[in-house]
What we know:
Elements: E1 7-16, E2 33-41, E3 44-55, H1 61-68, E4 76-87, E5 90-97, H2 112-120, E6 121-133, E7 140-149, E8 161-170, H3 176-181, E9 185-189, E10 193-198, H4 201-215, E11 230-232, H5 240-251, E12 259-260, H6 267-271, E13 275-279, E14 287-290, H7 295-302, H8 307-316, E15 318-322, E16 335-336, E17 341-347, E18 350-355, E19 358-362, H9 364-378, H10 397-405, E20 412-413, E21 418-419, E22 427-428, E23 432-433, E24 439-444, H11 451-467, H12 469-482, E25 494-500, H13 511-526, E26 530-535
Parallel strand pairs: 24-25, 25-26
Antiparallel strand pairs: 1-5, 1-10, 2-3, 3-4, 4-5, 6-7, 6-8, 8-9, 9-10, 11-19, 12-17, 13-14, 13-15, 15-16, 17-18, 18-19, 20-23, 21-22, 23-24
Amino acid sequence: MSPSAPSRPVSLFRLDGGAPDHELLVPLTPEQISTDIPVRLSGTHARLVAGAFRTEAPHWLPHAEALTGSTLELSSMLPFAVLLVPRPPWWYAVTWGAGHLVLNDDHVEPGFGLRFGIRRLDPFALGLVASAALDVSARATQISIPGGGELSAFRLEPYGELVQRIAGSADLTDLTYGRVTGKRHRIRVGTSLWAPLAKDPEAFLADLDAVAAVVDEPDEDSALRFVSQTRPLDRHHPIVPELERRLAGALGCDGGELGLAWPPGAGPDAENAGSFLVTALGAGGPLHVPGRLEPEHLTARLASIPEDRRLKALRAGRITPCADEAGAEPTGAPLPAAKWLAYETTVEHTRYVFHQGRWYRIGETYVAQMREQVSDLLARRHQWPAVTWKPSGAPDDEHRYCRLVAEQPGYVCLDRDVASTPLHPRFELCDLLGPEDELIHVKWLGRATAASHLYTQALVSAEALHDEPQAMAQLADKVSTSDPGRVLSGAPDTVVLAAAGRSWHVDELFTLSQVALLRLDRALRALRATLAFADIPYTAKKKVSARRIPKQRRGGTRR
């Protein structure tokens, strides 16, 4: 954009208009601030804050110096500027350089830029879409199409996909740039709006008002409307206190209303962990959790904390996955305990989900459509033999039940008989192979969110058998060893999820579990496999009260 252009691209944020301007920014030291002055923009009183952050030497510097014998001075300054402009009922912040780092996230309106983009981006000329899965996987995806493409080219999931950023060509006739040049412009939208705003103060204020008008427009006619079906709630939304009160109550129970969700980047470490270390979660010292982490490991500690302080304790707690059962070999950084839990509740017919430490609102139409699809999916049934699962509470309950089923004609027990391939070093092909070579995955679903691990096991197995010949060879070998004379004619094309503890019914599954189930079905269909379900006959487990997890590690010392 030439220097003579009427506008320049900047990042624009919208902030809580009820907060005083000094609360809109994070605390800064005098050394970081070079300018902090009031300014007037065509009669409007605004505030300009500018300065720089001094960056420390990069963490890789000692290695480079040791390797080369050279001394390197690489610390630098990171300049920033922020212009705070009141336009009741909002504050607007224009940022340059590292200015976005100066804003107080507690007062920034989430999804502001996306709301503009939904109404003005060309759905057939998108260049980038970044999204995250609103489920237990915490999968994050960014797809770029340099020449631009329509929305379908970005392969977004129809359910449970949280769109975070979009870039593409936009109609800016509402703004000075569009009126003067008559051109479209490539903008970026997310929490902020990156777009050309006028350099003239009066025209700049008019641009701010025009952006506000666009954001407040109805979006019924937008092809991108579905992006707003699932959005994070502003921390100051009036419904948040009620949601947090309900979550605090659930944190004091046995964990049955809660589920686990891996924080971003922690999925592989968590799935393969031998134990978990929980620290700073209330009084009592660290908790060592051998084996799989469950919500009751956290609620056992939180139940002893007064309800009005439980959420603060949850957010202060940290969880570290460890490679060994003794908890002596951490495989990742300690992550906030709040990011490991999922919870959902309904307030006045609207579904709200607590996920990755934030609240999300899920549109009513979205939920109804998803429930209908899940109900249709769960109608696919596999006939299960009349073998009752009688839980004893022993760790090998599942294995013993699978061996019982394997006494029935046509069933082969492969539970705990792990396979290994270059892409999947250690995984179970299935718990049972059925009479028609069905891959059957078995689990006791004690709570509505427990199905996520079953989904993961089923998908990993199906992908390995589809993509890696070694997996198919190992399956054939294991089957012929267990059932001499039985030969697999090809890769199994039916995957069965068999569950005890609750039935496969839409009302028995969390919304996030329904999202993950629809994703699993789509993924299996892409692998030319069909998903089916079986309800295992069972006797109920005895109720046990939440207990405090011992602080002493097995085979180790206190930490």
